[in-house]
Amino acid sequence: MRVFERLDELYAIGGGTRRGYSPEEDAAHELAAGWMREAGLEPEVDAAGNLIGRRGDAQVWTGSHLDSVPNGGKFDGALGVVAGIEAAARLPDAPVGVVAFRAEETGPMGSKRLTELPAAFLEVHIEQGPVLERLGEPLGVVTAIAGQARGQVVFEGRADHAGTTPMAAREDALVAAARFVLHVRECAREPAVATVGAIEVEPNVMNVVAAKVTVAVDARAPDADALDELVHAIGFEPGSRLDPAAMSGAPFEVLGELLPEAPRLVSGAGHDAMVLAAVGVPTGMLFVRSLNGGVSHSPEELSSEEDVGLAVDVLTRALERLAAVE
Ligand SMILES: [Zn+2]
Question: pTM (2 decimals)?
Answer without folding.
Answer: 0.88
